[in-house]
Amino acid sequence: MKRLPPLRLLNVFETVQSAGSVKRAAAELNVSLSAVSQSLRQLEDHIGSPLFDRSTRPAGLTDAGRILLKAVTENRARLTEALNDIGDLSNAPENSVTIACTVGFATYWLMPRLEAFYLDHPDIVVNVQTTAQEVPQMSAGTDIAMRFGDGRWRDGEVEHLFDEFIEPVWSPALANRLESAGDTLASAYLIHVEFPDPNWVTWPEYFDQTGQKPAGSARGLRFSNYVQAAQAALSGHGIMLGWRSTNGDHMEKGLLIPVGLPVMHSKSSFYVTLSQQSRRPDTARIVIEWMKAKAETSSAGQTP
What we know:
The chain is an alpha/beta fold. The protein has helices at residues 7-19, 22-29, 33-47, 63-91, 103-120, 172-181, 203-210, 226-234, 244-252, 281-297; strands spanning 52-53, 60-61, 96-102, 125-131, 144-149, 156-170, 189-193, 217-223, 239-243, 257-258, 264-275.
């Protein structure tokens, strides 16, 4: 196995690339031009391959240089993430609990209920860490992960929170507008959320599972964020797939109403996972028991 080069040489190499020239890199590192050039030569000698194509002006990276730059950049990002996680471990107060969940779950289910939690537990601080994945990973500072799936995870204690029911919803304003114009359901846009997660339920899957035919514009409106899609539905721009976990409160308040199509019982459910690495398992369990109690009294997960 080839021995790693000195970190200072990798730092010079990365600085030259980010600065765009040896001259600017020398100024940034506060060293001479010859010192930068010598470091690059030492790095190439250590690796055994040229990193720059010096036949061009400005010199470009060789294939070996591109491979090394990618590795240096990725590992710097990993090191930064690790240092941040270590900082979270050392800086978090003993009475705090960190929950990882999606933006949609945090916005529409968790955050509206936290005020009630603080009334019952004023001595516990709940930190919310949002993620794009329906199955958030357990980082070093995460105590609890809210996950949507089959519950088969081995990195903590998994408990079922609630089932998920999905049905098409729209705003009363859109429903009234179409009715006044004499238009049918098929004239409304479908609001799509393009989410790279196998557990995410899309319109094609909903139609397939419920035996329905597509209704609404084939073009539709497309979003990469469920919160943005929900806002579009609330504003009367189209029909969206309403998840009881995130749209249940909107439906209870009448801000979104069922279109009248079948309700789909998702094969996946919401689970709460207590991390094996949690430094505050007893405090985290208090939060979990509270969440389970709230889930029992909320519309999310209730059988239609």
